Amino acid sequence: MITESPKSPYLLIDSRRLDPGNLFVPVKENSRLSVECVVEGGAPAPGLHWLLVPPPGAASPPGLSPAPSSSHAHNGFTASIATIPRVLRAHHNSTVACIVTHPTLPAPLNASILLDVQCKSNFYFLLFNQSFITNLLFFLLLFTVLNNIIQLWTLIPLKILKKYL
């Protein structure tokens, strides 16, 4: 049996090859993301596997869904498509990695991208996506600060205010 090592993998999004130097891929929150991993050569055909790695210290976001026909070989190329059906804020700074295994390789090859999730402002997230208690505490703090400012303003004599206005 003749064996041939596969070449380094590369990734495609929307049928466009990603620049290996481009680490970040912007993707809109709540959109669908499909990433294709392509490897040239390899006899027998290499195995292609997917990983979704959360950023350090973060909980694991919902995973990748490999396409039903996990990988296919055609004209000397092996390819696999993985999809995140709905990109969430939790996917921000997660790494999508394609891992290539083959009997001739001393260690697996890989190609990866870092997700830059474009989402609504953090202020919006603070007000509408956190717990009710967090929102209540935020508004109480805001009310207290504003109330204190108003009380201080009323204590300043009009004579002093006219001097600075």
Describe the protein.
Residues 6-110 form the Ig-like domain. InterPro entries: CD80_C2-set, Ig-like_dom, Ig-like_dom_sf, Ig-like_fold. Keywords: Disulfide bond, Membrane, Transmembrane, Transmembrane helix. Pfam families: C2-set_2. It comes from Rhynocoris fuscipes. With 165 residues, the chain is α+β, with helices and mostly antiparallel strands. The chain is 23% helix and 41% strand. The chain is built from three helices and ten strands. It has helices spanning 122-128, 132-155, 158-164, and strands at 4-6, 10-13, 16-17, 24-28, 33-43, 47-53, 65-74, 77-84, 95-101, 109-118. The strands form two sheets. Strands 1, 2, 3, 5, 7 and 8 form a six-stranded antiparallel β-sheet that branches. The longest helix is centred in the C-terminal third of the chain and has 24 residues, at 132-155. The protein is rod-shaped.
